[in-house]
Design a protein that fits this description.
The complex is a heterodimer of chains A (about 260) and B (about 725). Chain A has about 260 residues and is mainly beta. Chain A is about 10% helix and about 45% strand. Chain A is built from 2 helices and 18 strands. In chain A, the strands form 3 sheets. Chain A has a 9-stranded mixed beta sheet with strand order 16-9-8-5-6-7-3-2-17. Chain A has a 4-stranded antiparallel beta sheet with strand order 13-12-15-18, covered by helices on one side. A 3-stranded antiparallel beta sheet of chain A has the order 10-11-14, with no helix packed on it. In chain A, strand 12 and strand 13 form a beta hairpin. Chain A starts with a helix and ends in a 7-residue tail after the last strand. With about 725 residues, chain B is mostly beta strands. In chain B, about 5% of the residues lie in helices and about 60% in strands. Chain B contains 4 helices and 47 strands. In chain B, strand 22 and strand 23 form a beta hairpin. The N terminus of chain B is likely disordered. The chains are: A mainly beta (about 260), B mainly beta (about 725).
Amino acid sequence: MKRFFYITILFAALCSCTKEIEIDYKDIEPIPVIEGYLSADMTQVKVTRTRNMNDSATAPGIRVDAVKIVMPDGSETTLAFDADGIYRPTSPIALTDYATYTLEVTIDGVTYTGASTLLPKIEITEPEFVWAELMDWMQVLEFETINIADGEEAYGWVRLHRNGELYFSDAGKCTGNSPFDIGLYYDSDMELDEEMILYDGDTLLLEVRHIDLGVYNYLSEYNSTQRNPAQFFTPSVEGKTCLGYFAAFSHVTREMIYKKTPHE
Amino acid sequence: MCAFLVCHNALAVKITGVTTDKYGATIPFVSVCEKGTSNGTISDADGKFEIDIKSLPATLTFNCVGFNSAEKTASANGQRLTVLMEEEPSVLNEVQVLSHHHSRTESVIIGVENIQMAEMAKMPALMGERDIIKSIQLLPGIKSEGDGSCGFQVRGGTATQNLIMIDNAVIYNAGHLMGVFSTFNDDALTNASLYKGAIPAQFGDASSSVFDIKTRSGDMQEYYGNVSIGLLSSKFAIDGPIVKDKASFFIAARRTYFEIFLKPTKKYRDKVFNFYDTNSKITLKPTESDVLNVMFFRGRDNMDMGNKIAEIHWGNTAAAADYAHRFGSVASAKMSLIFSQYDFIESMNVLKMKVSFDSYLRHHTVKEDVTITPSDNQKINLGAMYDHINLKSGDFTYSNGMSERELRRGNEISVWAGDDWTSDFGLEMSAGVRGVLFKALDADRKEQYTAVEPRFSAKFQLNDNQSIKAGYCRTSQHIQTLLDDGMSSPIGRSIMSGKNVKPQISDQMSIGYAADLDDKGYEFSVEAYYKAIDNVYDYKDGKNLGSSVDLESLILNGKGRAYGVELFARRDIGRFSGWISYTLSWSENKVDGINNNRWYTASNDRRHDINIVTMYKLNNRWDLSATWVYTSGQALTAPSAKYDLDEFTHYYYAERNGYRAPAYHRLDVGVNNTKERRRYTRIWSFGIYNLYNHYNPYLITVDNDDDKPSGTRTEQVSLFGLIPSATCTVKF
C-alpha cells in the first residue's frame, strides 16, 4: 500500500509539465529605444527600435536627428554618431555629484527628454562566494554596502560580468547599509540552465552603480512585472512612446577569479 | 350556480406549513407531494410551503435528501402544518452541494444557487477531497480561476469581488495548498447559498456574489462520527449531546501529510508543506425558543524550505457567537458577535539577507437580525450591523532591521429592511434596501461614504411548472484585493475605501425563465444579466504589489461591465441524473491610463463555459460519476514586440489582456462503493482527475531562445495532469 502511495505521488508530479505553444503575436510599429549612460568613464547613448516577436536578429542601431545632454548650468553638449546607433561626446564632460543632467534625443522630429542625478559612489565590502541551502545548494555572491547613513535611501544597480559578458543585472534598494546576496547558480542534479553555471577560472567583474530613484524605478519595473515600465522619457508630442532610460551614475568595481568550494 | 361554488371550493383547498428538523431549524427545498397524485410543490428557502389540493382529507409526503421521508394528513382547508423531519443517520454527515430540483422554478430570488449538499458525495473528487468551492464551479455563471487557485469568478466578476462567509464570519482566500483544496472541510458544513444575481438586503460588501456557508451543529440525541483517510489528507468529525436536548458539540479537523512522502528524500526531508483546518461548534438550547451557537474555525497553510530559510504561512481564523430567540410564531431575532482574520506571513532568511512581508485583514462585527412573519404571505427581515475593520496591507522588514508598513482602519455601519411577499395570483416579490455608512479612520485619509442599495427580485408563476423572474441589485464593496495577472493568491494586497480609494459600486440587472417537467424530473432555466461596476482598481504599468508599501500610489481607477446568458438543464430523478450548464459571457474594464483609456477585455473574461455532470447509481453499493469541464482561454497579457537593453532582451506589451491563453478542459471520473453495516457505513471513493491527461494552462512564459529562428520561445506551464485518488470513509 505504501508503495502505491509513493507511485501515485510520483505519477502526479511527473504529469505536471511545461510544453512549448504557439502564439500568434501581433505586429506593431517599431518604437524607439534609448539607452543612455553618463558617468566619469563611460558616457554614451545607444538608440535602437523594438522588433517584432518573430524577428530573431538583434535590432540594429539607428541614426537620429540629434542627441544632446543639457548640463546643470543649462549648457548643452551634443553627442556625435559613432557606430551602430551609438552616440558619444566628442570631449570629456565634467561631472558634479548631486547635479542633474538631462538627455534630449530627437527622433523623426519628436524630442524625448529624460533627466538623471549623479550620485557619489556606494562603497562595498569585499564580495565573497558562499553557499546557501534552499531547495538545493545555491552559489551566492555576497557583499554589503558600507557608506549609506542609517535611514538614508540609496539605489544600487548591481551588474556582474563573466568573462566579459553580462551575466547578471538587477537593481536594489537600501535603507541604510544593507547586504546584497546575488544568487548565481544551483549545484544540483536537476536540469539546469548550463549558461548560468560558473567554472573554475571564470573571471568575474562585479560593478555596483549608484543610481537615482527614477532609474531604479524603471529597472525594477521591467524586471518584475509582465507590464511595461512607466515611460522614462517625456515626448515633445503627446501620445508618442519611447522605451529605455538615461542613467547618470558613479560606480565601484571588483574583479574576481571564480573557484568552486565544497558546500557540505 | 350552486354546483359552481362547490366545485370552486373543492379546488381552493389550500394547505400551508413549514418543514423543520428536530431542533426547530427550518429545512429549505423539501419536496411536498399530495400522495397518489402528481400534485406537488417545494418548500422555500425558509422551509415554508403552500400547496393546493383537490380534496380532503389528503396525505402529504415530504422528501429531502439527508432526511427520512415524512407524511402528514391534512384534514381542513387553510390548515397550517408543522412537519418535523428526522435526519437520515446514514447520510447525516454528508455535505450536499447542488441546487435541489424545482428550486429554480420555485425560488423568488433570481440568480441564487441554494446549495444543499447530497450529490457532492457522488461526484469525482480532486485528490480524494470533495470540495464545496470546486463543486459550485460546475453551476452556470460560476467559473474557476484555473488550476492552482480556489478562487471562483461569478458573472464576469473577479474572485476578490465575492464575499465568502462561514456562519457570518468573512473568509478571504479560501484555499489550501495554493488553491488545490478549499479551506472548507465538507464534513463541517450543512448548507450554503450562493447569491450571484439579486443579493438579499441582509448581505453587502460584495460586488459580484455572496457565498453564505453554514456549519453543522452537533446532534442533541446521539453521538455520530466519521473518519476519512485519503492519499494526501485525512479528517474526522464527531458530534453529539453534551446534555440531551439542551446542549451539543461538533468538532471536525483535517490535516494533510504531504510531508510524509518527502521524508525519504534527502533533499526534501526537512521541508514543510502542510495545511490543517478545524471547525468546532457548541450549541445550547435552554428553552424551545432560544438557541445559542458558539463557533470556531481555523485554517492554516505552512510552507518552509527548511531551517526557516524561506517560510510562507497564511490562513483564516474565525469565531462567532450567535443567540437566536423566537417570539411566538410570528417573529424571531438573532444577535451575532463575530471575529475573523486573514493573515499572510512570508520571510526569507538566507545568509545575511533577512527580509519579511506580512499582512492581515481583521473584522470585529456585531450583527442583529430580526424576522417577522405577519402572515403566511409575507416575511419581513430587518437588521443592523457594525463592522470594525483593521487592514495591514503590507509590512516589509529588511535585513538591516528597517521596516515599512501600511495600516488602515475603518468602521462600517449597515442597516437593512427586506420584505418577501407572495400574492394570490402567482406573483412573488422579494424587495429590500440596505443603507451603508463607511468611515475611513486614519488621519491622513479620513473620508466618509454613504450608500443606499436597493435590492429587488420578482417571480411570476406562469403555471405549475414555469416561472419568469427579474431582479435588480446594487451593492458596494469597501475592501478590494488587487489581483496580479488576474488570479487571486494568498499574497494579494488589499485596499480600503478612504480619501484616495472609492468604494466599488455594482449594479446588476437580470431576467430569467425556469421550467420543470414534474413527472420526468427534468428542469430547465435560462438567465441573462448585465452588470456595471464603478471604481475598479488595477495596477499602473510596471507596478505590482511589491513596488511600494504605499499601495494606493500604485493603482489606477476605472470601471467594469459584464454581461452574459446562462443555460441550465438538469435531470434529478432516477438512476441516471446530472446536468449541463452553459454560460456565454463578456467581461470588460475601462481604466484611465491602461490600453489608451479604451474598454478592454478583463483578465477574467471567458467567452464560453460548459459543464456536464453525470451520475449513475448502479445499485445500492455502487455509484459512478463523471464531470467534463470546458472553459475558453483566459485573457492574457503577452508581448507584441521585443527590444534590447542592457545586453538583455526585454518585451513590450502593446495592450493589457490582448491575447488568449489556450482553452481549459478536463474530464474527471469517480466511483463510490458503499457498504452499510449494522453499526457503521464504510465508503470507498476512487477518482481520477483529468482522465485524458490534458495539460491545461497555468502560466504562460515568453523567453529569449537563440536556438529558434524567431529567437522567442513561448511555453505553457501546466500544474495537474492525470491524478488518481482513493479515500476510505467510515461513518458511525
